[in-house]
Amino acid sequence: MVLLVVCLWAENKNASLSQYAYPMIEGPDSMLRVSRCSSALFLVAEEEGCPIGFIKAVYDGSRAMINLLSVHPEFQGKCVGNRLLDTAISRLRRRGTPSIGVTAIENSEGFWKKRAFKRLPVFLMLKELDKP
């Protein structure tokens, strides 16, 4: 299911899904690694057996981080993202996290602010490593 979800989103080059500009982080191989990681949380929303959204988070013992929340464009604005986020928060809370951060793209800031997330004065940097 993880590979199916990622492939469906990767085919859609919609600007709201611009995280796919970095396939080494959010591409199919990365998602498969995440699905095997015990500290990761990977949830998929489905409608009639088809994936319509997913959320990826990790809890490292000090805080949780949502690295990706994505809803298929046809289902945006229909509470799919809110339900995925509520479920992820509940599960991360049960794991003991005192806070949850999120890596977000600019055009999703309004969504996160409505959910009481605050913008912090930090930014994400990336170093690509050569394959071993």
Sketch the major β-sheet: 4 strands, mixed
**Which secondary-structure class do the elements indicate?**
alpha+beta
Specify the CATH class.
Answer: Alpha Beta
Shape designation? globular
Overall number of domains: 1
The DSSP helix count reads 5
As residue ranges, the low-confidence spans are 12-17
Question: What is the fourth-level CATH superfamily?
Answer: Gcn5-related N-acetyltransferase (GNAT)
Number of strands: 4
Helix content: 25-40%
Which band does the percent of strand residues land in? 15-25%
In CATH, the architecture is: 3-Layer(aba) Sandwich
Taken in chain order, the helices and strands follow as: HHHEEEHEH
Rounded to the nearest angstrom, the radius of gyration is 14 Å
The average pLDDT score comes to 82
